[in-house]
Amino acid sequence: MKWIFAAFVNLLWLTSAFSQTEVEITILNAGLRDGKVLLSVFSNAADYGQKKVFAAYELASDRIPVVTTISLKPGKYVFTVFQDRNGNGKADTNLIGIPVEKFGFSNYNAGGFPGVFEKHQLDIGGARQKIRLNLYQL
Q: What pTM did the predictor assign?
């Protein structure tokens, strides 16, 4: 009987360890066919501070809004996005560091400068989730 209980506990642990949450991401305010939309996901504060991306996605802007679905393990994540109008794969800025291409962050409304991981993090887990990210042009 003990081995049945142990097997059941192990099965529960394995199921939770490998569980994934489907995340539907809708990106608003992208320019139609105005360059690819680049989405980055960060999984912790240290990597976010060092710009070490956990996962990256290159999305076409041939339909507005831009929508994609990804799978993530439960946890806290920050999502960043920009529209690469000149196709160089980088979020371009002017001489004083202000973005010249449309950009956005999770939990950001263009009110001031983007902040630390904790300011922009979203808690992912459980059932399918929907996230909306706005692109802003300064």
A: 0.85
